[in-house]
Every structure is written in C-alpha cells, then in structure tokens.
Design goal:
The protein is of the alpha+beta class. The chain has one domain (about 5-290): Double-stranded beta-helix (4-Layer Sandwich). The chain contains nine helices and 17 strands. The chain has helices at about 25-40, 50-60, 70, 100-105, 145-150, 155-160, 170-175, 185-190, 220-235; strands spanning about 5-10, 15, 40-45, 85, 125-130, 135, 140-145, 165, 190-195, 195-200, 205-210, 215, 240-245, 250-255, 260-265, 265-270, 275-280. The protein has a seven-stranded mixed beta sheet with strand order 1-2-3-14-5-17-4, with helices on one face. The relative contact order is 0.23. The structure holds N-oxalylglycine and manganese (II) ion (MN). N-oxalylglycine binds near residues 115, 140 and 276. The site of manganese (II) ion has 4 residues, from loops.
C-alpha cells in the first residue's frame, strides 16, 4: 500500500497513512519514512495498536536502538530496556504519586528538550506510542528548530555559529527541583558538549540544537551563557514554530530530534494514567564532530 501524507502543520508536521507497525519496517518502508521525515520532521501514524515487541521490531531497522537511560543507570523500570517509559505509571501498575522519584524523573519532559542531548551520541529518531491517553490535556508539543534558526536576526546567527553548549541530565533535573542522583548516575550522566547550530546531513538545512539539558555555553561565563540559551529558547518556541499533538489511543508520533524540540503538557485529571512508550534510534556521532 503506498504511503500518503497529510499536512498537520505547514512547515514540519504531517499525518502518514499506509503503514502497519505490527510488521517490522522493510528497507522500502524505512526509506519512504526517512524521505517523509526529512520534509516533515514530525510524523503522526494513527491507529497503530501495537505491543512493545512490535514497536521495537518496527523501530530496529532504522538504526541502532537506544537503551533507555533508566536501564543504563540502574533505575527500577516497568518496561524492558529498549523502551523508554514516558508514562506516570509504576511497575506495580499504579499512578505515581507526587514526590515519587520516578515521577519527578519524568517531569523534566514537561520542559522543552530534545531526547538524549545529554549523551555524547544523542538520539536521532524518537517513536512515541500513545497506549493510554489523557481525558484532557497531556498533549505533546514540538517546535521546528530549522524555522527557529531561519528566523534569527543575522547578528545572532553570527554569534552562535560555532558555539558549543554543555548538556547534562543532572542539570535538567535540577532545574525542575529534582537534585537526587546516585554516584553511578553522576558518572554515567557526565556533562557532554554539543553544537548549538547543526546541519541536517541529508537536507543540509541548519537548525538550532537546544534543550533543557543545555546547562551553559562552553567558554562563556555561566550567566552570559544562560542568558543566551533562554533568549534562544524563547525565540524557538514562539507559537508559529510549534505543533501541538492531541493524542488519540493508538497514535504513534515519530520525530527527528536533530531538528525539533518537544515537551509534554500537564494532563487532567492528574491522578489518571497516561501511558506513553518510546523507542529511540541513536544518531551516528557527537555533534561537535560534525561541521555546521
Ligand atoms: C519522550 C517525551 C513527551 C510526552 O518520550 O521523550 O518527551 O508527551 N515525551 O510524553
Ligand atoms: Mn523527550
């Protein structure tokens, strides 16, 4: 069945039909989706009622699967190591209560970020499956970082062209008031550098590479660097650059982390389950090794 694209946002989001994720992606499907995601970095696949095993098998042909941060740092987990649990549900199948470390760990996702920018090799594609969606709220918002870069004034583009930022999960957790980290986590999650401006290897378009994991600008005094990062963050997340995804059960949202940021919105009633499960494909290297 040929695939069909229907625009959901003029510059960067589309719905894609004609894919059945219960089957592993064939090489043809991989290249069709890669061509589609180059044009629309956010793809919505409706009606994909899949198991974890099917999600992993569909994702694997796109590259190297990421092992979840929770699995790498030895945190207790509900799902297997190739799934990142973006839900508010415990291993005992209960909604996590306020103050629970597992819940606080996921609250960082409510700030604008890109997946895995705190790893030396970050995440390229994220595939987020909506298993239980909220009655109200709980949207995922994404921002087009190519459009954000294009809209910057020329003098600001010049300032940031070759800058590097330090990224750290310890930092982004601390920003939301979650300072707890084991010695193992401090070692595994050591700060990494990433470019602030990157170029997509296939489309050759430049984009801003921002994230709540970005802690400061390398070589700059911390307040100067944070001021720049907050300014860029404000510019990048203006409504014109943002797509808001309202979830339906069975939706799978796939995005290219190299050219987008995203965040989860609060949902209601707050003590109800929201079950979101992500598989992720690693990028090919650290952004500092790539020319802008
Ligand atoms: C993620 C994430 C957002 C959401 O899975 O990486 O940020 O809306 N999820 O759950
Ligand atoms: Mn995320």
């Amino acid at each position: 069945m040929p695939i069909a694209l229907h625009e959901r946002h003029p510059s960067f989001a589309a719905e894609i039909q004609g894919i059945d994720m219960r089957q592993p992606a064939t090489p043809e499907v991989v290249s069709e989706i890669e061509a589609a995601i180059d044009r629309f970095p956010v793809l919505v696949f409706p009606e994909q009622h899949i198991t974890d095993e099917q999600q992993v098998a569909f994702t694997r042909p796109f590259g190297e699967l990421q092992v979840s941060t929770a699995a790498r740092t030895g945190r207790e987990q509900r799902l297997n190591a190739e799934m990142t649990d973006a839900s508010n549900i415990s291993a005992e199948n209960r909604v996590l209560e306020a103050g629970d470390a597992r819940r606080m760990n996921n609250l960082g996702s409510r700030r604008w970020h890109t997946d895995g920018s705190f790893n030396r090799v970050p995440v390229k594609y994220s595939l987020l499956s909506g298993r239980i969606v909220a009655e109200q709220g709980g949207e995922t918002q994404l921002a087009d970082m190519r459009a954000a870069y294009d809209s910057l004034p020329d003098n600001l583009k010049l300032t940031i062209e070759d800058l590097l930022a330090h990224h750290s999960l310890i930092h982004s957790r601390a920003v939301v008031g979650f300072a707890e980290a084991s010695p193992d986590e401090r070692t595994i999650l050591a700060t990494v550098s990433q470019r602030l401006v990157r170029r997509h290897p296939r489309t050759r378009r430049k984009s801003l590479y921002l994230s709540n994991h970005a802690a400061h600008i390398v070589g700059w005094p911390i307040p100067e660097g944070l001021d720049l990062l907050y300014d860029l963050m404000d510019r990048a997340t203006q409504p014109a650059h943002v797509y808001t995804h309202k979830w339906r059960v069975g939706d799978l949202l796939m995005w290219d982390n190299r050219v987008t940021m995203h965040r989860a919105r609060r949902h209601y009633p707050e003590n109800t389950p929201r079950d979101m499960r992500r598989t992720s494909i690693m990028d090919v290297g650290n952004t500092v090794e790539q020319a802008a």
